[in-house]
């Protein structure tokens, strides 16, 4: 009979293998300890976590997108709309085709505040940098949402001015809104100042709107680019996507093109009669036209919105009560006021009282 050797117990084999493996892993007493600096550096250089917004932009007009056109999408901090920090992230989609136009926008979630208000703004440009389509309302964004977004673009066409002019006659739009609808308005960021420039194609003059103020400057000869100025020392020089603004008695401001309009100009386009804003905490209020105007107050960085259908004139301001019984009083001081953070100059000061809490800021009458 063949003889069979009994196999060693499995546990004995495992024990032997384990002891050999452990012995092989022990460092040589004479060898230097392995360095972990590289691992530490790699950890410190790890890319921060990013979030992504996925969506599409479309327009309903039957207009072919010209070759070389591109789409720009921006993530905007609505509460910083008057500052250079408004744009938190931006993406550009080149050589686009017919709509819908897909896009992906990466952003740093650490740049968002828990109490912030954020939105998406999109614009479609032709190969010659002319604005063809734009979102006329900002798409509200819920941070952290993974749902795809859809942005509806509005056509910007020079030929649309005729219909807009009729709307002005009916009191629906301001003349500045006509210029914007006809594609003649450009938005500029001049230092801390957000400026809208409306060109009058007939006279060649341009109207600058900022901080509730309006300056009408005549076109004058320029060696390069365009120059608009008045006899008071105000001057605006522009060439391509850059400009220089000089306000009488103040230093020059370097300007760059922006996609974000001034909220003061937007309020005027909607027919708002008076607007004021303040800081710490951020707030703004808009008063409509007429003897009993509607009033909307946005308080505490947008956390609270109060609406009064019919406010009552009260001395140099207005008072009113919301539908749920909150009392509001706005006092307007018709003396020059300077914003403590941006340095912007306004024609009036404003004090808002809501219940037992007070807010101070600066404001302007948007219509003469």
TrEMBL record:
<dbReference type="InterPro" id="IPR036328">
    <property type="entry name" value="MliC_sf"/>
</dbReference>
<dbReference type="InterPro" id="IPR018660">
    <property type="entry name" value="MliC"/>
</dbReference>
<feature type="signal peptide">
    <location>
        <begin position="1"/>
        <end position="23"/>
    </location>
</feature>
<keyword id="KW-0564">Palmitate</keyword>
<feature type="domain" description="C-type lysozyme inhibitor">
    <location>
        <begin position="188"/>
        <end position="250"/>
    </location>
</feature>
<keyword id="KW-0732">Signal</keyword>
<feature type="region of interest" description="Disordered">
    <location>
        <begin position="27"/>
        <end position="47"/>
    </location>
</feature>
<dbReference type="InterPro" id="IPR053196">
    <property type="entry name" value="Lipoprotein_YbaY-like"/>
</dbReference>
<keyword id="KW-0449">Lipoprotein</keyword>
<dbReference type="Pfam" id="PF09619">
    <property type="entry name" value="YscW"/>
</dbReference>
<dbReference type="InterPro" id="IPR039366">
    <property type="entry name" value="Pilotin"/>
</dbReference>
<keyword id="KW-0472">Membrane</keyword>
<dbReference type="Pfam" id="PF09864">
    <property type="entry name" value="MliC"/>
</dbReference>
<protein>
    <recommendedName>
        <fullName>C-type lysozyme inhibitor domain-containing protein</fullName>
    </recommendedName>
</protein>
């Amino acid at each position: 009979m063949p003889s069979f050797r009994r196999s060693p117990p499995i546990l004995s084999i495992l024990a032997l293998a384990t002891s050999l493996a452990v012995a092989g892993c022990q460092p040589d007493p004479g060898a230097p300890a392995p360095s972990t600096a590289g691992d530490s550096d790699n950890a410190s250089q790890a890319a921060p976590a990013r979030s992504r917004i996925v969506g599409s932009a479309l327009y309903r007009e039957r207009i072919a997108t010209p070759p070389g056109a591109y789409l720009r999408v921006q993530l905007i901090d609505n509460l910083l709309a008057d500052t250079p920090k408004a744009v938190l992230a931006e993406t550009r989609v080149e050589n686009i085709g017919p709509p819908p136009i897909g896009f992906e926008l990466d952003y740093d979630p650490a740049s968002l505040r828990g109490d912030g208000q954020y939105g998406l703004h999109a614009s479609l440009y032709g190969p010659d940098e002319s604005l063809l389509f734009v979102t006329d309302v900002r798409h509200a964004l819920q941070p952290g949402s993974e749902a795809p977004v859809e942005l509806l673009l509005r056509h910007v066409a020079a030929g649309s001015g005729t219909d807009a002019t009729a709307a002005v006659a009916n009191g629906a739009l301001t003349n500045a809104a006509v210029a914007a609808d006809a594609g003649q308005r450009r938005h500029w960021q001049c230092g801390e100042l957000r400026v809208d420039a409306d060109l009058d194609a007939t006279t060649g003059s341009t109207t600058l709107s900022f901080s509730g103020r309006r300056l009408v400057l005549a076109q004058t000869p320029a060696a390069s680019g365009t120059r608009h100025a008045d006899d008071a020392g105000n001057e605006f020089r522009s060439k391509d996507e850059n400009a220089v603004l000089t306000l009488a008695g103040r230093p020059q401001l370097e300007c760059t093109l922006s996609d974000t309009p001034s909220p003061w100009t937007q309020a005027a386009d909607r027919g708002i009669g008076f607007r004021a804003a303040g800081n710490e905490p951020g707030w703004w209020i808009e008063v409509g036209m007429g003897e009993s105007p509607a009033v909307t107050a946005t308080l505490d960085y947008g956390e609270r919105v109060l609406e009064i259908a019919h406010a009552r004139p009260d001395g140099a301001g207005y008072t009113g009560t919301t539908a749920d019984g909150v009392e509001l009083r706005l006092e307007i001081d018709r003396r020059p006021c300077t914003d403590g953070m941006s340095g912007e100059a306004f024609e009036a000061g404003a004090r808002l009282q809501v219940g037992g809490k007070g807010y101070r800021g600066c404001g302007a009458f948007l219509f003469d």
